[in-house]
Write the structure tokens for this entry.
Amino acid sequence: MSRPVRYSQPRRLNIVSTILLLAAGAGVYWVIQFGPPYLRHWKSKGILSEAANSIYPRRGRLFGSGAKELMDEVGMETEKKLRAIGVLDPKLEAKVVVVKNEVTVSADYIETIDHPVIKKTTILRFTPSFVMQLSIE
């Protein structure tokens, strides 16, 4: 007759649970460090969309003598709104470009992430843009 096999209860901390804890910690670290810059990037796309839409009612000025002033005004308003959501890059640049019947509003900025434990820096460059077709009447 065979004897019953006695299994011991697994330890609370084993290799699998250790790997899962490390993976969860890495995921939390990634969300804390990289989440805010990517959230700002997502919000910046909405700001650029609003800027392009704000040009539409004034589209008649785009092809007259006030075109440069309108594009500069919208670009400065866009930069102000981007700074309000937390874009800190001193070289932030928001541009408005008109080609034929198409308006492109874009921004260019850098986000810096410092990793305290490994004493490294990650630089993320974001260049969101929004293109809108104009119907000239």
Q: What stands out?
A: Helices lie at 15-55, 67-84. Residues 83 and 89 are 9 Å apart (CA to CA). The first strand starts at residue 93 and ends at 99.
